[in-house]
Every structure is written in structure tokens, then in C-alpha cells.
Amino acid sequence: MRASGSSPRRVRAMLTRYLYLLRSSWPRALELVYWPTIQMVLWGFTSQFLMTNSSWVARAGGVLLAAVLLWDVMFRSQLGVSLSFLEELWSRNLGHLFVSPLRPYEWVLALLAMSLVRVVIGVVPAALLAIPLYHYSIFTLGLPLLPFFVLLLIMGWALGLMIAALLLRHGLGAESMAWLAVFLLAPASAIYYPVAVLPGWLQYIAWSLPSAHVFEGMRAVMFDHLFRLDHFLAALGLDFLYVGLGALLFLLAFRQARERGALLQTGE
Amino acid sequence: MSHPVILIRGLKKCFDRVTAVDGIDFVQEPGTIAGLLGGNGAGKTTTLAMLLGLLVPSEGQIRIFGEDMLTHRYRVLPRMNFSSPYVDLPHRLTVRQNLTVYGMLYGIERLPSRIEALAEDLQISGFLDRLTGTLSAGQKTRVALAKALLNEPELLLLDEPTASLDPDTGDWIRQYLHTWQQRSHAAILLASHNMGEVERLCSEVLMMRAGRIVDRGTPHALIDRYGRRTLEEVFLDIARADRARIA
Questions:
Q1: For site-directed labelling of A34, which of A53, A254, B39, B61 has its Cα 20 to 30 A away?
Q2: A and B: number of Cβ contacts within 8 A
Q3: Does the structure show a pLDDT above 50 at A231?
Q4: CA dihedral defined by B114, B116, B118, B124, rounded to 10 degrees?
């Protein structure tokens, strides 16, 4: 019976915990699919209208739908990390978790894995539903879809880890950041319009975000049938930078929480 | 060479200008039950949190099983466990799911049979598949104890294990802990302000006040030293001396 724990097993334990939670509540599972689907339906009708009223949209039908679906990858990815993290605060479970042999980095890996699960459950049904509803398949982006997906997933993880660090530092008082922070980046991410339409100072910010490079790259594929390697490499480099920064902030916040005694106290 | 289970030297914890634990020393030998006794704010829970690695001391040394808890806590954590009525298990998971997750975290072999055996032992089989949040206080305490015993700890830390339980359930828990300790020869350190509990279970008592260990000894030795009849009277003597000192 003696313990023979391994790192992958502890990551799997935490993933199992989050899957139990998801499985136990159908409203939670429904919520994952609900918002991406509603967004897709709204932008689908908007696209249909603009197809006959905007030459820009008419040049590449589905550009808005592709954008909204990819944006949801980043949003769901960040929310996936934040919500699993919040579960531990809501249930005041940190005290039990960190007297077990669980390492903080193993917990982070479980949070990231669960975020991927949430993204797939949330975005794939909406993407599939767009095919019969609007005769648009995001899969027509072809191979570039994969790097776009991964780059936005990682950007969401980075943001999720930074928000988790904030929650560790300030407790549930900062909970609303989990829902709102990503929207701060939306204007500069140039989801539905080229970066060029932004004012000069905002363009500097945009080019420092992986998401702006991804959406610019997506439009290049759709309008010019060109995979822009420069945008891909810039987004990849920035992703590494931000996810590294997110992990560092999280681990620092965790260390500070151990100094302040917040692991026992943080909760409702 | 066998090490003490717990060795604490000059342990101190300050939060801003408040000193919660003020330079305590303590050694606990294997197979013993020790009690940290003190009023609210005496520093018991802070001491336990530092022993568990949840809280980083401001000064001092903690060795558990001979290992430095500050630098090698992951060598030690698989061999110890903890239970407190103030740190709940997740409410929205069933009891079995909670025990499964924690069993996996501790790397327990043959986990389903371990859970069944513990459930029978702690009389929780009847509600293994109920949500943890729907259980009564007594049931939650037994479930928390099941989680704490999953890895057959050599050191069990308990924070007020019978707080908010009715006398019958409290007595059942104390009896269970006593029997389990006799069977496993594990060491137990419990923080409590239930004098009867400490008197019944502990071979050594550490009286804490304002972050310091102000006295220590067996329950009987302390009672004799203060010329009192019960440990509760000793506790009141110490607490009132503190109040008089502050006044």
C-alpha cells in the first residue's frame, strides 16, 4: 500500500479531479458549448449580411466566422486555466493539495491540460455547426489552422497563469479578472480588422501580442492564400515569452502565498 | 540511526508586525502522541502549517524524519498527512472521487481496495457515493480522516480533530485515533483546545501562549505542577496569567 507516486500520476490525479467536476454538472458542460455557439451564430448572420454589403468580407467569405472561432480558442483557453484554478479557491482545497506530494508545476500542467479539454469541448461543436448553418468550415484554412490554434491556446494559457498569480496574491477579490482580462486584449488583437486600422501607438501594442500576429496571419491565408512565416515566428516567440512570464509569476505568487499563509486561508 | 519524527529549533513566524510563533523548540519521538494546547491565537495552527510546509518560517529549523522541511519537503510529504475540520475536501465531488484523487496524488497502489478498506474501518461505506458537501459534520470528519490515512502516514498532524462534533461522535473519533495509533505506531501531533481530548490521547503536552511554548510535560505532570485537578484548570491558569500580563 506504500505510496509510489510519480509526477505523471499526480498530474493525472488533478486532471481526474477537474474531469469529475465537469462530469458532475451538465449545466457546466453545456456552458462550455453555449457561448462559442451563440457567438458563431451571431457572427454567422453578420457575415451573411456583410457578404452582400462589404467588398472586404465578400473577398473572403467566413473571415469573421474564422476570427470568432479562433478568438474563442484563446478566450476558452484562458478561462479553462482560470476556472480550474478558481475551483480550488472556491472549495478551499489548497491546504489539502499542498500537504500532498503535489508540486506546483504539476498542478500547472494539469490546469493546462484541462484548459485544452475545455477548448476542444467548447469550440469544436461550434465549428462543426457552422458548416451546415453557414456553409463555412474553418477546416478549409488547412494546415495553418493547427499553428493558429496552438499559438492562441498558449497565449490563453499565459494569460490564465498570470490571472492565477493575481488570484493567489489578492484572493477571490480579484475573481472578476478571470472573466474580464482577456477582453482588454481584444481591441489590440485585431480580431475582426487589420492591425493597420489601429492608431499608431496601439499598433505597437498589437504587434507585441501573439494574437494580433495570428489574426493577421489568418487573414493572409484567407485573402492571399499565403502562410506568413514572419507572423508565425513572431507569435511563437512572443508566446514563449508570455507563457514563461506567466509561469514565473505563478511560481513567485505561490512562493509568496507560502510566506503569507495564504494557502490555508484563501477561499470564500 | 533513528531520527526524531519532528525536530524544531528556534522556530519563528512573523506576519508584518505580529509574531505568531516566537522561537519554539520541540522534539517528538516516533510512535508518540503529542498535543499542542493553547487558546485562540496561541500559535498552534501556525506551527502546524509550518510543519506541513504550507507556511515558510521567518526563522528557525524544522526537521521531519531527519529531513530539512524547508529544502526537502517533497521527500517528507508522502510519509505524513493532515486533517482539519477547517480545511474541507471539495464539496462537489463524491467521497469516493475525493479519496480517489488524493489516493492518486499520494501514489497509493491498489487504490480501490484501499478506499473500501478505509471506508469500512471508518464506517463511511454507506455514503462513499454521496457528494461530500451534503454530509453532516461528523461524517465529514470521518471522511477527512480517511483522506488523512490513505497513505498510512508515519506522522499525522491534526488540527482540532473533534471541533464542532457532538460528544458521541467526538468520543468515537478519539477512540478510533487511539486504536489506529496503537496499531500503526505512527506519531500524532494534534492541536486542540479540548482538554479532555489532549488528556486522554497525548503522552506529552506543549502549552502554547502568545506564540511561545510556556510549559510542557505529560498531562499528569502538568496537573501536579500547577496543583490542579484537571488539564482544563491548568489551561485556565496559563490563559489568565496571559490576560493579566496584557492588562
A1: A53
A2: 112
A3: yes
A4: 150
| Topology given in CATH for the domain delimited by B6-86+154-246 | Rossmann fold (3.40.50)
Residues B51 and B44 sit within 8 Å (Cβ to Cβ): no
- Nearest neighbour of B87 by CB, restricted to A16, A95, A260: A95
ipTM score for this prediction = 0.88
Strands of B18-28's sheet in order across: B18-28, B6-15, B59-64, B67-68
pLDDT at B246: 57
- Across the interface, whether the CB atoms of B92 and A3 are under 8 A apart is answered no
pLDDT higher than 70, residue A175: yes
Q: Answer for the pair A184, A196: CB distance below 8 angstroms, yes or no.
A: no
Residue given cell 462543426 in the structure block: A128
User: How much is the pTM?
Assistant: 0.90
N-term to C-term CA, chain A? 35
Q: Assess A256–B contact: CB distance below 8 Å, yes or no.
A: no
Taking CB atoms and an 8 Å cutoff, what residues of chain A touch B104?
9-10, 12-13, 16
pLDDT at residue A45 greater than cutoff 70: yes
CA B137 from chain centre, in angstroms, equals 18
- Taking the C-alpha atoms of residue A187 and residue A206, their distance in angstroms, rounded to an integer, is 8
Nearest to A5 among B78, B92, B101 (CB): B78
Q: What is the mean pLDDT of chain A?
A: 90
**Any idea of the CA torsion for A137, A141, A144, A145, to the nearest 10 degrees?**
-20
User: If you ran DSSP here, which 8-state letter would residue B94 be given?
Assistant: B
- How far apart are alpha carbons A78 and A85 in whole angstroms? 11
Find residues 74-93 of chain A whose CB sits inside 8 Å of chain B: 87, 91-93
Residue B235 identity? F
A1, A105, A256, A259: best mutation site toward chain B, by most B Cβ within 10 Å? A1
Please answer yes or no on whether A91 and B80 come within 8 Å at the CB atom.
Answer: no
For testing contact with chain B, the best of A21, A100, A265 (most B CBs within 10 A) = A100
- A13 contacts chain B (CB < 8 A): yes
- Secondary element (H or E) of residue B36: strand B33-37
